[in-house]
Structure formats: structure tokens, C-alpha cells
């Protein structure tokens, strides 16, 4: 199996140049000009196109029992959607609630689903939804199986959130194992009390979701996390960081030496809280946590990416249909399943609104869409760059494509698109996973079940 990508403009996080890429088996074996290929090689003409390393989404939910229902995608539908959008590796949360199965069983359960059905490569952040001696032993074993990151929640009281005692010991364990802790930072108790208050005042629509978890509630979560991380010098990563207040807390922590990295989401870059205020319950399509914020925050996120104090752009893909799922929260916003799906569109939106609008250069797009996630989560240089010896996960990107996002054409298994009718400039022409073409011009052409668990060594000691 060999593949030759000819004459593309290669873009990594640090370089841009025109060359050919030759891949033999699953890896890149040569980069140069005028490369010759043996007979039967698949040849792709990339003249006038960019060649990016396969993009990595460091925060997705696929199998997700949550808020009384289940997320809609399967590993098959999600990985197909990821691939047509240029994402070749997904990091999914193994997300078992506090009183669900033992952590070890949760991990095996999620792994089994992904191994059978994913068309793209994958790994997991292991959720720590409770902690005792048995959990510590199981987490130690899970790390030995190639999982070098944890996920914790400070929010979702009673379902996922850790007590402070558990948080303290999770940080201690993570440091000992060399694991980075990714964290959902919002104060669980304040949210519950605010929800009760708002509902008692008759404030039941989707627009009130924001007011039950305003920016300060998230910033308190970031501050809280960093205080506990500091006690053990643990490496932490704030997922879906939505607002200036939270970013400021993280940067204050960085200043005093806390090892913290920041993730934003494509939703926070291009949407704002007015979407959740749409009439006739349309706003429910835009309910996620932390909530969409005031528009003024968008510049803070773009600046953070440009100046590289925000490391990554993820999706927090959490797909719930409008009919029958979002509708569960009619008359009570606290029952709207949280999530704005965007796995398929992350890179096209980032390119259209970032690169085409002059907010990001191409190398920053690659850095925040792929390379930083690979470096932080132990995938680099196998993933996240274009180099000899790296996996041949490549995106030949057509900057001249013009189209529109629509639920009718998306591969995500969902009855709406949060970006219906939005114009897109550019999209992946060809996407390869370990040397095989998996997507072409918006169509999936790969193999379901070919995706592999990418094992990762702990590096955050
Ligand atoms: O609204 C969200 N973010 N849904 C998914 C669960 C989570 O908090 O990441
Ligand atoms: Zn979260
Ligand atoms: Zn999430």
C-alpha cells in the first residue's frame, strides 16, 4: 500500500513549503520534490491545495448516557463525520457517572464500542467520577493500557462531580502517574441553587440556562481546580473554557507557575449567547455548558489562539436531537440535554472564520487544531505533524471550495445543524488515515472499524 501526494503546500505548526509526500504502509517515508512512485501507488494531485496533518479533536462525546438520555451518534456515524471534516483522531471521554459501573468496566465498555465501529483513530480521557482505593488501583491499570489523561467534572452535581477530598487525591494520583487532568470547571452547588431560584421565578426557557451558570461560576471552577493542582504540581487542562473571566483565572495560575493549558471550542469562537435566546424553543439547540457567552468574548478567544495562550480548539461534540431530546426541556431549561454538535464542521469553521477573516495564520490553525493536542496528550510526533515516520494522517485541503452547511448533507446523526445555511470557504478534498484514503470531497470512502486505539505514554511528571 503506497500513496503519493504531489505538489501540495505543506503546512505544519512551524513550517510551510511546497513538496511531495510519499507514504508506504501506514507512515510517511519520504518528503521531497519530484518524487517517483512505484506502480499501483495511489497518486493525489495537490496542486493549489494545502496539505495539513490530520486534525485531532481533543474533546468529544460519542457514547454518552447523560441527562436522562443518550447522545445520538455512534462511533460509526461520528467517525465518518469527523473524517469528512478533516479530523483523523478523536479523544473521547470515557464518561461513566458516579454510581454507574466500576471505572475499569467503563473503560473496557467504551473501548469495545470504538474498536468495533470507529473509522478514524481514537483514544480516551478516562473520567474519574469518584475516588477510593479500588478506583486508584483501576486507574493505575487503565494508564498502563495506554491512557495518559483523566477527565474530571466540578459540575453536574450528583452525576459526575467530585468532592474536594476526591479532587485532592485525584490530583495526587495523577501527578504520581504522570497523567494530565482535563477538567470541566463550573461550581456544581451554585448552579443547582441558581437553577432552583430561576425556576421558582418562572424563568423556564432555554435563555435562562446562561443565568444559572454565569461567567463567574466558571471562573470559580478554574480557580478551584488550580488551587488543587498547585498542591501537587499536577498538570491540568481546562476544557471548554468559555469566557474572559475563566481565561484570566487560568493565566493568573500560569503566572504563579501552575501547569495549566486552556482549551476553547469552535462554538465559543463563532456563536454567542443570543442564539440560546432564539424564540419558540429554537434556543434549546444552543444550550450547552458552560453556556454560550456575550459576543465580546469571541475576540478574547481569537486573540488567545493567535498569541498561543489558548492551546487547542475542540468541539465537545455532544449530539442530541431537537425532536424528543432537546424537547425534554420544554418548560424547564434544566432538562435540556447539554451540547452543540460540531465534530464535522470544526476545521471548516476555523478555516472560514479564522484564516479567511485574517484572525489566524495557517500554521496557527494547524497548531491549535492538531499539533498542540498531540503534544499535550502524548500523541506527538506520531500524530499532529507531517514528518518522516509520522502516521500518514493527512488532509489535502481545497481553499477554493465554496458551500453551505446543512443538516441534509451532514454525516452527524442528528436532526438539526446549529450552523444551518452558514457559508463555508474551503473543505477537505482528500483525508487519509494511516496511508488509506478515508474521505473525499464530503463523502466517506473509508472502512468502519479500521480506527485504532492510539496508546499513549504518561509524560506529565
Ligand atoms: O454541554 C456540554 N458541554 N455537554 C457535554 C458534557 C460536557 O459537559 O462536556
Ligand atoms: Zn463539560
Ligand atoms: Zn465534554
First and last CA, distance: 39 Å
Radius of gyration over C-alpha positions, nearest whole angstrom? 21 Å
CATH topology: TIM Barrel
Fourth-tier CATH superfamily name: Metal-dependent hydrolases
Main sheet: strands, sense, barrel: 9 strands, mixed
Strand fraction: 15-25%
User: Helical proportion?
Assistant: 25-40%
Identify the CATH architecture. Answer: Alpha-Beta Barrel
The CATH class assignment is Alpha Beta
What structural class do you assign from the helix and strand content? alpha/beta
Ligand list: N-(aminocarbonyl)-beta-alanine, zinc ion
Short description:
With 461 residues, this protein is an alpha/beta fold. It has helices at 75-84, 103-117, 133-144, 164-177, 188-200, 209-212, 215-232, 244-255, 266-270, 296-306, 346-355, 362-376; strands at residues 2-11, 16-24, 27-32, 42-45, 50-53, 55-60, 65-66, 69-70, 87-94, 121-127, 149-153, 180-184, 236-238, 260-265, 312-314, 394-404, 423-433, 436-440, 443-444. Strands 1, 2, 3, 4, 5, 16, 17, 18 and 19 form a 9-stranded mixed sheet that branches.
Description:
The chain is of the alpha/beta class and 461 residues long. The chain has a single domain (54-376), classed as Metal-dependent hydrolases (TIM Barrel, Alpha-Beta Barrel). The mean pLDDT is 98. Helix 4 (164-177) packs across helix 7 (215-232) and helix 7 packs parallel to helix 8. The protein contains 12 helices and 19 strands. The structure holds N-(aminocarbonyl)-beta-alanine and zinc ion (2 copies). N-(aminocarbonyl)-beta-alanine is lined by residues 61, 184, 240, 288-289, 316, 318, 338-339.
Amino acid at each position: 500500500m503506497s500513496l503519493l501526494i504531489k505538489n501540495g503546500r505543506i503546512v505544519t505548526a512551524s513550517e510551510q513549503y511546497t513538496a511531495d509526500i510519499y507514504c508506504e504502509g501506514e507512515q510517511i517515508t519520504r518528503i521531497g520534490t519530484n518524487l517517483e512512485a512505484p506502480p499501483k501507488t495511489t497518486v493525489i494531485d495537490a496542486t493549489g491545495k494545502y496539505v495539513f496533518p490530520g486534525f485531532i479533536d481533543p474533546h468529544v462525546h460519542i457514547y454518552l448516557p447523560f441527562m436522562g438520555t443518550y447522545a445520538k451518534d455512534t462511533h460509526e456515524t461520528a467517525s465518518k463525520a469527523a473524517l469528512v471534516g478533516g479530523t483523523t483522531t478523536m479523544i473521547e471521554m470515557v464518561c461513566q457517572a458516579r454510581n454507574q459501573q466500576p471505572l475499569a468496566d467503563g473503560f473496557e465498555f467504551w473501548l469495545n464500542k470504538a474498536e468495533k465501529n470507529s473509522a478514524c483513530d481514537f483514544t480516551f480521557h478516562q473520567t474519574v467520577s469518584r475516588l477510593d482505593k479500588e478506583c486508584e488501583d483501576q486507574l493505575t491499570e487503565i494508564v498502563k493500557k495506554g491512557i495518559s489523561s483523566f477527565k474530571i467534572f466540578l459540575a453536574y452535581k450528583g452525576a459526575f462531580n467530585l468532592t474536594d477530598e476526591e479532587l485532592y487525591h485525584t490530583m495526587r494520583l495523577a501527578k504520581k502517574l504522570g497523567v494530565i487532568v482535563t477538567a470541566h470547571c463550573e461550581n456544581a452547588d451554585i448552579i443547582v441553587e441558581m437553577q432552583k431560584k430561576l425556576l421558582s421565578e418562572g424563568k423556564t426557557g432555554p435563555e435562562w440556562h446562561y443565568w444559572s451558570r454565569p461567567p463567574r461560576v466558571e471562573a470559580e471552577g478554574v480557580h478551584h481546580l488550580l488551587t488543587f493542582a498547585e498542591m501537587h504540581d499536577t498538570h491540568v487542562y481546562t476544557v471548554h473554557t468559555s469566557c474572559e473571566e475563566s481565561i484570566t483565572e487560568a493565566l493568573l495560575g500560569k503566572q504563579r507557575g501552575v501547569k495549566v493549558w486552556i482549551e476553547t471550542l469552535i462554538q465559543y469562537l463563532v456563536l454567542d449567547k443570543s442564539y440560546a435566546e432564539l424564540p419558540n424553543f429554537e434556543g434549546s439547540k444552543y444550550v450547552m455548558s458552560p453556556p454560550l457567552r456575550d459576543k465580546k468574548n469571541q475576540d478574547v478567544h481569537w486573540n488567545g489562539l493567535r498569541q498561543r495562550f489558548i492551546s487547542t480548539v475542540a468541539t465537545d461534540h455532544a449530539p442530541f436531537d431537537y425532536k424528543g431530546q432537546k424537547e425534554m426541556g420544554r418548560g424547564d431549561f434544566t432538562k435540556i440535554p447539554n451540547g452543540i454538535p460540531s465534530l464535522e464542521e470544526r476545521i471548516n469553521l476555523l478555516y472560514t472564520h479564522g484564516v479567511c477573516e485574517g484572525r489566524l495564520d495557517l500554521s496557527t490553525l494547524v497548531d491549535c487544531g492538531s499539533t498542540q493536542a498531540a503534544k499535550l496528550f502524548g500523541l506527538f510526533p506520531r500524530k499532529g505533524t507531517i514528518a518522516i515516520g509520522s502516521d500518514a494522517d493527512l488532509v489535502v485541503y481545497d481553499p477554493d471550495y465554496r458551500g453551505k452547511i446543512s443538516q441534509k448533507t451532514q454525516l452527524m446523526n442528528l436532526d438539526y445543524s446549529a450552523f444551518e445555511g452558514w457559508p463555508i470557504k474551503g473543505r477537505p478534498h482528500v483525508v487519509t488515515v494511516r496511508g488509506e484514503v478515508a474521505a473525499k470531497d464530503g463523502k466517506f470512502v473509508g472502512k468502519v472499524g479500521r480506527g485504532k486505539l492510539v496508546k499513549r505514554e504518561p509524560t506529565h511528571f
